[in-house]
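Narrative of accomplishments. A recurring question from our advisory board has been how the design workflow behaves on a single, concrete structure rather than in aggregate. To address it, we present the structure tokens for one chain from the evaluation set, followed by the sequence designed for it. No filtering or post-editing was applied between the two.
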């Protein structure tokens, strides 16, 4: 479905999870009750569930904390506020990454951040779709410019993983792991993923769009297309008693400073910490590169963030990229 301003306005009223009468909604939006009814029906294929009860009105099956520009900014620390140039929140967008990749073609901005409540064409790595229902998760992209080419930002996606673990830890969420190269994991299940898209000159100015998708609440019915074990924050912490806006701020508080100083610090600054979150060390895996499969046991990452795989013969192979899946050993 296509979200209009009216859809969004209705949701700002229903977001509290309480009943609201048709009369209340129609006067708030200044449209007829029949028109309200049509809007409410059009949510049917959005993933949002609206309960109607005669005499009481309409309510969402669960409250939503909508993302708010002012709430996110209020929790940013001084350093992050200074690094942030623009903060946008879209109720619906094709993909926050695609949007900023497009922006990067016409402007060279540092610290442009885009969140969305839903994505119609959310993209994962390797051409996969990223399931992006409304108001439930974090879909975040950050645009940054770098001066010293692609090689100077190698390992950036691993450092971004460190930022995400730190933000979750600040919220009291512990035991989050990182699965090389770009996945946020908890107990062998994927909680989130990072997609970095770089363009520009290989040895000079380049821009990177750093995209993060983090599952906070993924309704079962939305997950039929997901091909790997997944989880969400609510399953981990066992409650929906947390603030999406606070988490959004924490993510920016960790992400922006790391990205801004990455060319100076390099991945070396995050190597030890990344290793402490590594959830693949010692595990039997298969790495796929195109049609080729390499089996072995993960021997960690090297100083440049490349994956080390030990095969049956005891030889160590180094991988700069690839799709890794766990095997039964
Ligand atoms: C992965 O495959 O693990 C990477 C997932 C990245 C998803 C995020 S959601 C925000 C941003 N916009 C997108 O279209 N993709 C990234």
């Amino acid at each position: 479905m296509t979200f209009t301003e009216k859809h969004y306005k209705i949701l700002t009223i229903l977001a509290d999870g309480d009943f609201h009468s048709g009369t209340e909604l129609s006067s708030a939006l200044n449209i007829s009750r029949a028109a309200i009814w049509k809007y409410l029906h059009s949510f049917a294929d959005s993933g949002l569930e609206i309960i109607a009860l005669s005499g009481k009105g309409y309510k969402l099956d669960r409250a939503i904390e909508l993302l708010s520009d002012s709430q996110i900014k209020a929790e940013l620390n001084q350093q992050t506020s200074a690094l942030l140039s623009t903060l946008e929140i879209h109720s619906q967008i094709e993909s926050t990454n695609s949007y900023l990749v497009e922006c990067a073609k016409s402007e060279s901005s540092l610290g442009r951040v885009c969140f969305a409540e839903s994505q119609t064409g959310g993209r994962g790595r390797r051409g996969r779709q990223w399931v992006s229902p409304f108001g439930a998760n974090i879909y975040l992209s950050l645009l940054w410019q770098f001066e010293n080419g692609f090689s100077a930002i190698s390992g950036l996606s691993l450092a971004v993983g460190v930022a995400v673990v730190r933000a979750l830890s600040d919220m009291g969420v512990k035991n989050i792991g990182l699965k090389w190269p770009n996945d946020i994991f908890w107990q062998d299940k994927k909680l989130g993923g990072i997609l970095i898209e770089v363009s520009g000159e290989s040895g000079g100015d380049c821009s990177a769009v750093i995209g993060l998708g983090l599952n906070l609440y993924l309704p079962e019915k939305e997950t039929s297309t997901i091909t790997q074990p997944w989880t969400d924050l609510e399953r981990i912490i066992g409650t929906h008693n947390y603030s999406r806006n606070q988490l959004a701020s924490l993510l920016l508080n960790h992400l922006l400073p790391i990205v801004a100083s990455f060319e100076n610090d390099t991945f070396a600054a995050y190597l030890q910490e990344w290793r402490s979150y590594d959830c693949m060390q010692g595990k039997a895996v298969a790495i796929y590169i195109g049609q080729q499969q390499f089996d072995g046991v993960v021997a960690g990452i090297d100083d440049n963030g490349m994956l080390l795989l030990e095969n049956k013969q005891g030889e160590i192979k180094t991988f700069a990229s690839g799709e890794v899946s766990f095997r039964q050993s």
